[in-house]
Amino acid sequence: MSGYTIRLVDDAKEGCCSKCGQQTLGKRGLTLFADDMGKPVCRPCGKKLAPTMIALLDLALTAERVGKGCRHLLTPPMESLLDLAHAAENYSNTAPTLRAG
């Protein structure tokens, strides 16, 4: 079983998904990588192979977007808060349940 990491990409280079070979768009920012290959993973493969990491990535990207857009406001708009709540709920639904034991 291979591991996955979320890395900050500074330079936008196009490449191929390390799992399916599909062309990935070169974008700056947070990206999911496969530990075994060190290459980015496309979103469809990430959703199949590491749904928790994709949900965490979505939560981080949503928080970044809301933070940048609402930096000058005292309180963010309700739509932004709902976007954050939705992303957090998606993450909590995909996270494995922990048992005390």
Task: Explain what you see.
By secondary structure, this protein is α+β, with helices and mostly antiparallel strands. The chain folds into two domains: 1-49; 51-101. 43% of the residues lie in helices and 16% in strands. The chain has three helices and four strands; from the N terminus they run ββββααα. The protein has helices spanning 43-49, 51-69, 78-94, and strands at residues 4-9, 15-16, 23-24, 29-34. It has a two-stranded antiparallel ribbon with strand order 1-4. The chain has a two-stranded antiparallel ribbon with strand order 2-3.
Short summary:
The chain is of the alpha+beta class and about 100 residues long. It contains three helices and four strands.
Break the fold down into its secondary structure elements and pairings.
Layout: E1 4-9, E2 15-16, E3 23-24, E4 29-34, H1 43-49, H2 51-69, H3 78-94
Antiparallel strand pairs: 1-4, 2-3
